[in-house]
Specification:
The chain has 19 helices and 17 strands. The chain is of the alpha/beta class. The strands form five sheets. It has a five-stranded parallel β-sheet. Strands 11-10-12-13-14 form a five-stranded parallel β-sheet.
Length: 600
Amino acid sequence: MRAKQRYVLVIVSCAFLILCYFSGYKVEGPMEMSVEPPCFMEEIEDNILSDYKSKYRERCTMESCFNFSKCQSGFKVFVYPTINDLPLTPTYQKILRSVYLSKYYTQNVSEACLFILSIDTLDRDVLSNDYVRDIESYILNLEHWNSGENHIVFNLYSGTWPDYYEDLGFDTGKAILAKASMAESTYRYDFDVSIPLVHKEHPEKGGDVTHSYSSHLPDMKTHLLGFKGKRYVYGIGSETRNALYHIHNKHDIIAVTTCKHGKSWKDMKDERCDADNKEYERYDYDVLIQNSSYCLVPRGRRLGSFRFVEVIQFGCIPVILSNGWKLPFFEVIDWTKAAITGDERLLFQAPDLVRSISPLQAFNMRQTSQLLWHIYFSSIDRIVHTTLEIVRERFDRLMPRTSSNWNAAPGALLTLDSHNSLNLFQPSSKFTAIVLVKSTEFVNGISHLYKLVQNIGQSKYVTRSKWYVTGKRLNQYSMVFLNAAIYHVYYVDLFQSWLKEDIKREATQVPGCEDVILNMIASHITRKAPIKVTQRRNLGDTPLFHRQEISSLSSCMNLLTRFFGYNPLLRSEVRMDPVLFKDSVSNLRKKYKDIELANP
């Protein structure tokens, strides 16, 4: 009887081992066991993606899906007339206005190289209030659609709960897709453009260098690593955010989350939600970001996040945890110099990773991220222009801009084809600043209230903010006359090719307006005041300009301020006297001792 029981036990054990073997379990040791996940779920996911690609997206390249013959008149962009019964979101209105006011825009459809829809395609989540239904019927009725050839489609949100697949709900065909949260699996190389995800409140114009962009930034801030945001209890994008509480130590690493979002959060909350919500309320989001050296940017429901643009704006180095995300404008921006990218499954290694970075390297990354934000991400206008410039460069491959053009000041948006080989802002023998060599000062009335006036002008309650030229003779100045100044020809070429025609007409009609414009262009690019080289003089009470001249020059300045979105002029009191070497002091105390030996 006992022998029979032993035989039964042996048979059951063998059956169990065979079952484990064919079910995918591997016994590797007495206490080690790894599980191989079944592959049928991956097959289903791959099938869904392949169906989407075959249904909505052609695997395009510029050579196969773009008609270069339409671009014989140059890179001109045509926007379809708006359709009365289709409303546009404020963000899409900003995009269209940026195109209207750009140098690319044309009203003549016959000379158009690129077409932009007047149908709002930004939000393609069927659960959103901004979702445009039956959009394909409107698009197919467009006269020049032609399966999307030579069209560009802007999109911020695609797909919906629970999968959030990159489904726009219509056949984009051969159209270039300028899309946020762009995935590697659907990105068409050298054809689509990955753009950032931005809030509805993102400014249309502007983007002055923030207070954080300064050489006085500390090497390390109060917190080493910071994060404050939503936590998803379940579903896509929840894995990393659900584990953030493990690295939160309340000292140098702050990682707080909240479940309190959505209509049914109370029904879905878990045992940690109440404690997480309480800890979450202890920290202010803006204060935390500004006082953190590194900021976590984990994926949300979609690959991209608003947080990415927010953290680089405040000088916080982004630590990106979003597998498969094509970073915004990655084709031209070298993100290795401004951000850290890691595997979202290796969250617990992030603290050690950021601690291994030297203070000097962190400082350089922070400066670079601030510069990139200022040049490419600080407004809708700059995002749109960067997108169009990337497409234009694919069309015009004869004079491509280098990586240094894109990743260093003043950036590719202000780099002309005739000057793209000049490294204008590195030490060289060429002039890179305006130098005045006459005694008359052209004065601007910017005072210590400049930042206050600038912030007030950005308020939604202010309908218009004006700047005025003053004719008083003061030691402070922000502009110089150009009739006796030395400046690089680059600024003149930029004046001719970059500015709109109405601004250039204003410059020819108003005396002195050309001086104002070139001063503002130089300050916008260099973010520096001009250098005055003049002798000391006594300041009189006689104004430099008459009242009518002041009014005309102020009007010119306000026209440029609206174009830039801010006033780029900077105040200075620096004066480099060319005859200081004649001061009656010992030659041993002078820095340039041989200057008196020079022949006149």
